[in-house]
Model the fold of this input.
Amino acid sequence: MVKLAKGVVLHQRRKPLKHGLKFTNYMWFVDLMQPQRKLLPKDHFGGEAPSMLDAVENFARSRGESIEATDKLFAIASARTNGYVFNPLSVYWCIKSGGRTRWAILEIHNTYGDRHAHLLHPDDKGAAVINKEFYVSPFFTIDGEYKTRTFFDEKHIVLSVNLYQNSVQVFSASFTGELLEASIKNRLLAYLRTPFATLQAMARIRTHGIWLWIRRLPVIPRPNHPKQSGML
Done:
């Protein structure tokens, strides 16, 4: 099963400067228990797993979790377009036979080529709180916590990451969209709207950073990010 997730991306910096991004984009929602060719293991986690299922299962196991025989495993991410991909956020869900989420993984990529994943246990509404552990924006320190929401049903999907530092919300990012049949018509329309989807997303994020730098927002030095355990 493969579906097209068409939606709106919002980035909003709240402090010390207010600035935001808003644009339409699309991602791919896939069942990792079934054969699929949209999401490639070389683009996720350590990039060396034989399959996406192996990559996700290995990371979950490294965090003390597993995939049971009756579980379902879903993922949403951007796929390669014209040979290029950039995934600021990929999400993976392990769903029990009764429909509840056993666990989820947030995989974050920054614009420097680093990646980091968090395993979390969302509530029934998809909400969870995790510590910030990864250098993403050059204008934020590596501290604080993320309040996240990772929710989907048959027709809709909501992904949001809100950064709090010293109990104050300083940044929010979200993708809110609808899940569509991956028909030839829907694929063609998505490609015509955003023929270089992930390249366009990268360009917008970099332009956003240049805008902040021109306004003399202090740049935080980027530390070395060693390969995370469980990143097969």
